[in-house]
Amino acid sequence: MERLQQLSLHATASTQPPVAPPHPLDPLTTQEIKATSLVVRSHYKGKTLVFNTVSLREPIKRAYYDWKERNGPKPPRLAYFVVTENDHVGVHEGVVDLPSLTVIESKATSGVQPILTPSDLQNTEDIVRSDPRVIEQCEISGIPKEEMKNVYCDAWTIGYDERWGSSKRLQQALMYWRSDEDDSHYSHPLDFCPIVDMTEGKVVYIDVPGRRRKVSKHKHSSFHPKHISEKFGTSENPSGFRDDAKPINITQPEGVSFAMKGNVMNWSNFNFHIGFNYREGIVLSDMNYNDHGNVRPLFHRISLSEMIVPYGCPDFPHQRKHALDIGEYGAGNCTNPLALGCDCKGVIHYMDAHFTDKDGEPLTIKNAVCIHEEDDGILFKHSDFRDDFQTTVVTRGKRLIISQIFTAANYEYCLYWILRQDGTIKLEIRLTGILNTYICAEDEDIGPWGTVVYPQVNAHNHQHIFSLRLDPRIDGDNNSAATSDSISGPGATGSPENAYGNAFCADKTTFKTVSDSLTQPSTARTWDIFNPSKINPYSGKPSSYKLVSTFTPPLLAKDGSLVKKRAPWAAWATQVVPYKDEGVGYGRLYPSGDHVAQWSGDGARGMREWIGDGKDQIENTDILFFHTFGITHFPAPEDFPVMPTEIFDLMLRPRHFFTENPCLDVKPSYARTTKEVKAGDKGVDECTLDVDKTSQLAFTKTSGSCCKK
Ligand code: ABN
Ligand code: CU
């Protein structure tokens, strides 16, 4: 308490506002976080506060472009905060104006709880281990009380449990046992689930199943090098690792071909701002493409706005396992520091991420965002068969990758935002880490709801479903969206309109209202986001970005389920709503609501509110395009004890945006015209010019020469 008083005295004494970073979308600096918490402390003087969130309140879109494009003033520098107070359950949130060091908005919201931070999850194990009723349950499971130090739990938000609703700030503790500190505990789940009141710091209930299962006596299944050595090591090869580990090194002798001015990236005609926040993690904003001097807007903002991992076991209390990892924990809060040479290879630029700790002190994750380039294979190529393919052009591409990795207790999500030189924007997700597991008895029939991935380990079926939020600005603020279906031509084979039966075309249906935009995927479906006022002079079609996304599983939870109530957006592949400056992050950011933890799913929040009666007009106006994608995961033994990365992706491709291949101006690696071939001229040859000094033949000593002479 003494420390708190000291800090609040400091708050009133501090008159100097922190220096703002250069760009209005730059995340808060550590000084700004500290200044915010001092102001907040003095605002709530006398209260015992726990800091939960201090993050940039981004400027509203109009204010941003007034500054950026219309010579207007710099938008106000604002910090958004959430604190909890011991005598009030719910969310205390507000906004601090940093230049004046004043709280300009504050409110208390009940019916929900704030996002859980890593620090909220760190004490739970100690609380659980020392609770006498948990010790008793461990004894029933076959773990004597002297062994409590070997009992572990993954602390999850309770999601929503109607026995308590949102009246207390609760966690469910998914229980496990290790025989040794270095074990992976996921091969030894326990069968009961304590509920912990975070404010009281105590266990309030324990869910105990009807059928008891003793902890498994099988050896732990782990994956660290010492366990691999124990498992596979031989006297000739004690490590047990495969003997094929020749290094693959990446060389970029001249460094990178991107430039960063603060957080603003310039790369191969793309220009955009890279932001990062506690919740969405990486945010790409104000993205433009320089089309031979004409700077054309693409997207105002791109981010992952929510996700849900619903599990499919119908038995109580497994219905509670449906983590909304972005809204309940934060892809930013859970982000990893990345290591050069392992997480990221090549020439890397890193960005740190700054959050608040529970005392309002800045907390920094070093190297949270990795920015680098990779060779991207062939960008385009054509050879002429007339001279045995000697007339040729082959141009290699490179790609820019902005990535982060976050840990959601058991799983790792590796997020790669990838730009290609043809204007394509890709998102690739690599899912790794460990399955969430539950115990099964040796003789148990677990039914169709999971897979036995190791003796006595049941991994329940589940889905990993994301919401991609796009705030498009394709050639301007007013955009439309449409489905684009590949369809066979009308009429039967032999009919006048399709005499040979081979006809097919793209059938585009523009969304007029929000209801029209609530679409489902089909095998032949893509979606277009376009500017109806900007027509391509060649194709006569509007300037577009096409969303190509094939990892689009149906939401398997039914109407009335907690999952569908709390993540209504997950039931549609797309939802397009008008942009509005409203909500915690201005501009309809979070489709499961501003505060997700312990939301019952009732009432109109987030996407349900934005859809409303579905009648809002969304044609040729400022729209937000949400896309649901992901995978359904039926676990298998190959996913255990740690899962090899499972990859899923989507892309946004320019279509009718350019008047020709936009990367013709990328220099080829090798090109010869027919005349050059006839005259024996070299043409463009980056191979024999010894530019590529590192390529070589695998089984001879000859180096260079990738190309036929
Ligand atoms: N998957 C649930 C979760 C995420 C982050 C931290 C704890 C639990
Ligand atoms: Cu999974």
Q: In angstroms, what is the radius of gyration?
A: 28 Å
Shape: globular
- Bound ligand species: benzylamine, copper (II) ion
Record field, number of beta strands? 32
Count of runs of 4 or more consecutive helical residues: 11
Instruction: Name the quaternary structure.
Output: single chain
The CATH C-level class name of the largest domain: Mainly Beta
Major beta sheet summary: 12 strands, antiparallel
Mean pLDDT: 94
User: What class would the helix/strand composition place it in?
Assistant: mainly beta
CATH topology of the largest domain: Beta-galactosidase, Chain A, domain 5
What would your notes on this structure say?
This protein is mostly beta strands and 709 residues long. It folds into three domains: 1-110, Roll (Nuclear Transport Factor 2, Chain: A), CATH 3.10.450; 118-215, Nuclear Transport Factor 2, Chain: A (Roll), CATH 3.10.450; 265-336 and 357-488 and 504-655, Copper amine oxidase, catalytic domain (Beta-galactosidase, Chain A, domain 5, Distorted Sandwich). The protein has eleven helices and 32 strands. The strands form five sheets. Strands 15, 16, 17, 18, 19, 24, 25, 26, 27, 30, 31 and 32 form a twelve-stranded antiparallel sheet that branches. Helix 1 (2-13) packs across helix 2 (30-43). The protein is globular and about 90 Å long. The termini are far apart.
